[in-house]
Amino acid sequence: MFRSTCLFCWSAPVFYTVTATVAIDANHTVGDDHVDCGHRWTVTVETREFFDLSKGRLLPAYDLQSNLFELLLPLRHRSLNEMIPAVTPLPEGLATWVAEQLALRFPDLTTVTVEASYGTHVTLHRELRRSGGLV
Predict the structure, then answer these.
(1) What's the structural domain count of the chain?
(2) Which of 76, 117, 119, 126 would you label with 25, given CA atoms 20 to 30 Å apart?
(3) Which are the contacts of 65, defined by CB distance < 8 A and separation ≥ 6?
(4) What domain range is 80 assigned to?
(5) pLDDT at position 56
(6) Which residues contact 17 (CB under 8 A, 6 or more apart)?
(7) 1 located within any domain
(8) Distance between CA atoms of 72 and 67, rounded to whole angstroms?
(9) 26 forms bridges with which residues in the sheet?
(10) pLDDT, averaged across the chain
(11) Sign of dihedral through CA atoms 16, 104, 30, 124?
(12) CATH at residue 62
């Protein structure tokens, strides 16, 4: 029996992972020694997007990229401690903050990975309902 490989003929929903990455230079102070450490912070976000047959396209990748860039731009060459004081200025704190900021605009945001220039990276995973959004 012939089974079509056409994307539009599949009976199950088809989804894609859309990824955006932005790198910024920023400093932070950790611990009691109050020494500023400057790092390059690379933030990568992924969202699950379903192919919209009515529009014939996905969410544009540049939409995710531009939103991530606009979110991180004010942090460039600044102190994370001063710019987002309620957040622990470490990769896990930055990942949590980015996820919280982008989740309303991108409800199917699945992961946020933050890597600091000293080699440490963390990935925050968000669980999604079948219909999208947080569990």
Answers:
(1) 1
(2) 126
(3) 20, 22
(4) 15-125
(5) 63
(6) 46, 47, 48, 49, 110
(7) no
(8) 9
(9) 39
(10) 82
(11) negative
(12) 3.30.479.10
Burial class (CB in 10 A: 0-12, 13-18, 19+), 22: buried
Q: Which two tokens stand for residue 60?
A: 């544009």
Sequential DSSP letters for the chain: ------GGG-SS--EEEEEEEEEEEEEEE-STT--EEEEEEEEEEEEEEE-BTTTTBPPPHHHHHHHHHHHHGGGTTSBHHHHSTTS-SSHHHHHHHHHHHHTTT-TTEEEEEEEETTS-EEEEE--B-TTSSB-
* Tens digit of each residue's pLDDT (9 = 90 or more) over 43-96: 999 998 776 666 666 666 678 999 999 999 999 999 999 999 988 888 999 999
Instruction: Give me 16's structure tokens.
Output: 């894609």
Domain-located, residue 121: yes
The residue type of 100 is E
> Which two structure tokens, joined as six digits, stand for 93?
């704190």
Q: What is the pLDDT of residues 3-20, one digit of tens each?
A: 445 555 555 666 788 899
CB proximity list for 58: less than 8 A, separation 6 or greater: 16, 18, 49, 51, 52
The amino acid at residue 49 is E
